[in-house]
Each structure stands twice: as C-alpha cells, then as structure tokens.
Design brief:
The chain is α/β, with parallel strands linked by helices and 398 residues long. 45% of the residues lie in helices and 15% in strands. The chain has 19 helices and 9 strands. It has a 9-stranded mixed beta sheet with strand order 1-2-3-5-4-6-7-8-9. Residues 38-141 form the Epoxide hydrolase N-terminal domain.
C-alpha cells in the first residue's frame, strides 16, 4: 500500500478535517480538556494567503548589495533575486497536495498543540520511530524518506513547538528537555510502549535528550550530529585522528558564520518581527539550507522554497527563533551523559562529530558511519542513503 492509498483509507474513516490556518489551539481550560484527543489535520492554505504572499514577493526590495555580492557577508542579492523569481512561480497547491498525501494529526501535550505526520507500517514487526526535524525545517524534512522507511517503521514525524504547524507556542519553557518529554507522551498516546528516534540539528539534540531521559521502552537514537566539544583535557587531543582536526576547522568556520545562533538566543522577538512581515527576510534568514556546508549544500531550491513556504504560512518565525532562547536559558552547567544505544551518521559536508569527544558524553555509541556525499540536510539531499543508515542502526539493536 502506498502512502497515498494509506491516506485515502484513513480519510474515508474520518468525518472531520482540520484547516491548518484556522486551527489555533489556545491554553484555556476548554482546550486543556481536549488534551488527550488526537484530531485529523489537513494543510489547506486560504487563497487570500497565497495572494498576499504573491503581492509581497512582487514588491520585493532587496538590500544594497555587499561588495562582490558573495556569501561572505550573508545571503547575497544574486541568490535572493533568483530565489524570489522561483518562489513567485512555485506551485504551492501541488506542494500542498504532496504534503497531504500522508496522514496528519494534531493533539495537545502539556498545553501545547503538536502537529505530526503518522504513517503506520503494514509490517507487523515494524519499529515505531520518531523522525525529528532540523532548524529551520519542519516535518516536511522527511517527506522524501517516508516510502523507504515505512516498510520497517511506524513513522511519527512531529513539528517541534513553534515550528511548522505546531503553533502557536502557548507558554515559555519549551526547551529541548520539555520537548523530549512531550514526544514521549505523544508516542504513548499513539499506543507505542517502545520506540526509537532519529534526528538532525535541533532534532538530534532532542533525540539525545530522549537518550538521557531514557524513558521506559526507549530503544535508542540515531543522529546525524553529536554536538560534543573539547573539554580542555590535553589527553583528548592526543587521541584525535587527522580527520578530527578537519572537523575542528569546520567548527571554527561555523562559529564564525553562525550569527543567527546569538540573535535567536538573545533577541528572538526582534528578529521575528522582520521574518514574520517579510517573506524575503525569512528566505534570507533560512540561508542554512544553502550555506551550512560553505556552499556545498545539495538541497534543491524547490525544496528550500517548500520549507520556507511552510514557515511563512504558519507564521512560525517567532516560535522557531525562541527555541534557541529557551535552550540558552535552561542550559545545564554540566553535560549529562547519554547512556542509551546511539548511532551516528556523519555526512561529508555536515558538522563533523568527533568521536573522542562524543564518547565522553555518550557512553553507548554502537554505530558510527561516514558518508562521502551529503550535508546537514541529508533528508533533503540524499534521503535514500540516510534511510539505509537508519535501518542498519535499528536492525543492529535487535
């Protein structure tokens, strides 16, 4: 059965669909009483919203270009000019149809609305699996991987609080640890008493937090990054391999260009004002899809526009930015050790996790692979290679 067939079967059994733009779940008592209810959801953007976007894009005013108009100073005009024209021609209705080809739902956990994709496998031996998205991505990160994973996994693909259609963020405090607890509650609500997780970027940090919390039945985590850094102990450096020094250079490069980290973690509402009012501002601020690997990204522009369109129509910029603020405010003094079974897939043009540092903070790394092609957004770049690595890790845990 294809995902489209599965969707049709589910839709036929459901009497109600929910419109993404009009579904706003507040934190009043009436809505809190609905916490345990799982409701079908459908992404249906009003034509007036599409017309508004088209009007804004038609009136784009680009900044004065930096000398040379290169990526050295941030997103250059030549890229934005091309991307804006492509966005004006982007077929949102076709994208919307593709998004809705899999089953979507919404539920409240801890007073917060969570939107998620849920595709059940026809395989009775399938493993329940959380797929946790990047920043500045959303659940659509994984659309290209559903068909290749659903044979072996029941897939649950949530939008983190403030991302995609998990909006609005109803209260402060939605850091990585709280989100991990909410995901565990979601899996229990769906009837899964054991499950695993895969994640990249923010999703990797939430997956690792699940490993730290180790809820009953948690099988393990597969991630694309373990964000472990030098402790200052000289003995760590004595064990480094040549490829690890290249990884340190990549860390230094990203620290130099990752100014959005500081802005999001300190003044998220300030930057969100511009991102929420200007689609081109949001597009420029989403430069990671193109520039994380220093120009090596394989993400097609059409997929970048899908990601940015979701964030635009959901008005998600503020919640996405505040996620950094929440994590900065709750950061522990000492890094807790993750003792859950852990697998790592390191892609050539992504953050290069250093195993010496990672093993200090994660005591049960049982799978470590390197891939010669792909980067930070491997689910959008090389989805088949990533899916194969996920399957190999969880098969090794049986």
């Amino acid at each position: 059965m294809t995902n489209r067939d599965m969707t049709a079967t589910l839709t036929a059994a459901q009497d109600t669909t929910f419109t993404a733009i009009t579904t706003a779940i507040g934190n009043d008592e009436e809505n809190r009483d609905m916490t345990a209810e799982i409701r079908p959801f459908r992404v249906e953007i009003a034509q007036s919203e599409l017309d508004d976007l088209a009007d804004r894009l038609a009136r784009t005013r680009l900044p004065q270009p930096a000398p040379g108009d290169t990526w050295e100073h941030g997103t250059p005009n030549h890229y934005l000019r091309e991307a804006v024209e492509a966005w004006r021609a982007f077929d949102w209705r076709a994208a919307e149809q593709r998004i809705n080809a899999v089953p979507h739902f919404v539920t409240d956990v801890d007073g917060q609305p969570f939107h998620f994709i849920h595709v059940r496998s026809q395989n009775p031996e399938a493993t329940p699996l959380l797929l946790l998205h990047t920043y500045p991505g959303s659940s659509v990160d994984y659309l290209d991987m559903i068909d290749s994973l659903v044979q072996d996994f029941h897939l649950v693909i949530p939008d983190a609080p403030g991302f995609g259609f998990s909006t609005p963020v109803t209260e402060a405090g939605w850091d990585t640890a709280r989100t991990a607890r909410a995901y565990d509650a979601l899996m229990r609500r769906l009837g899964y008493d054991s499950y695993g997780a895969h994640g990249s970027d923010q999703g990797a940090m939430i997956a690792r937090e699940l490993g730290v919390q180790a809820p009953e039945g948690f099988l393990g985590l597969h991630v694309m990054q373990l964000f472990s850094f030098p402790s200052g102990d000289p003995a760590e450096f004595e064990r480094l391999e040549p490829q690890d020094y290249a990884a340190l250079e990549h860390m230094q490069w990203f620290q130099k260009v990752g100014g959005y980290n500081t802005m999001n973690a300190s003044r998220p509402q300030t930057v969100a004002a511009g991102l929420s009012d200007s689609p081109v501002g949001l597009l420029a601020y989403s430069e990671l899809f193109h520039s994380f690997g220093n120009g090596t990204s394989l993400v097609p522009l059409e997929k970048v526009l899908l990601e940015v369109s979701v964030a635009w129509f959901a008005n998600a910029a503020a919640g996405m930015s505040r996620s950094y603020y929440e994590n900065a405010a709750s950061a522990p003094q000492d890094t807790p050790v993750n003792a859950s079974p852990t697998g790592v897939a390191v892609f050539a043009d992504d953050f290069q996790s250093v195993r010496v540092f990672a093993e200090r903070d994660n005591s049960a790394i049982v799978h470590w692979t390197r891939h010669p092609r792909g980067g930070h957004f491997a689910s959008l770049e090389v989805p088949q290679e990533l899916a194969a690595d996920i399957r190999a890790f969880f098969a090794g845990l049986r």
